[in-house]
């Protein structure tokens, strides 16, 4: 055979062998590249929503366990971030979020509105992460144990006459939880009018009450405030804001005073213990509905009187929708019993 032909055949065979080897190497390289892709590009997962979460005040909060959608790499561990993260704890294995009991009247969340916000972060074994926002609302619990302090000035009998019929002033000191404040030094103070206080100072009884009769030699209206001792030294030093001032009226003859100074709507004989009685069997009293802007709002209603009652229609600024009253410094919710 021609030596040149033999050389050409040998060259072609080697070329074919190299071509085959190169193709195999390319296929192997592609497979190897796929195997060596970062697992983070192949793993996608998310921490599912915890749903709407809320708890009554003075009750500890515990969330459901976290649930995952998708395919994380290895084990997912959980941690917390966000504005109120320091107020929560989390089980790193199952994502259960916990918070100790909170006081509705003394919120600790960043916004001070009893909405505690936190971010749950899930991290898999290849450091892939997924985040889920969690908001926990703390509700106001109007139970008997949550009865607010009620220091009040009132006039159980607000009408007297110059012929000897007396009126009555009362101070009631009821502490938080409905506990009467016994043995507290108190004092009535007349701010205007002709009346005289029979016993202007004394101490509260076991029911947290101190009373005095009021007399007058002249007809007219007198106004009163009251003070109580906050230091325990026996000297009244703080004004009772709720009910101050309280008015007492004196006439020349209480027996001839029209309906005893009482007003009746729907009745001609209002109860003797009332200033105003509204009677009815198929209708109610409609309280003004007002959209307040917050607990300290004195612009919507200018100079609100202490104990002024309205139905708030706007859940903003720390207020809930419902009945609220002005306590002299802020609007407070009237709790349903």
UniProtKB/TrEMBL annotation:
Q: Which Gene3D superfamilies does the record associate with it?
A: Cadherins, Immunoglobulins
Q: Which InterPro entries is this protein grouped with?
A: Cadherin-like_dom, Cadherin-like_sf, Ig-like_fold, Invasin/intimin_cell_adhesion
Protein name, as recorded:
Cadherin domain-containing protein
Could you tell me which residue ranges the Cadherin domain spans?
74-150
One Gene Ontology molecular-function label? calcium ion binding
Naturally occurring in which organism (per UniProt): Nonlabens spongiae
**Entry GO terms, CC:** membrane
GO BP: homophilic cell adhesion via plasma membrane adhesion molecules
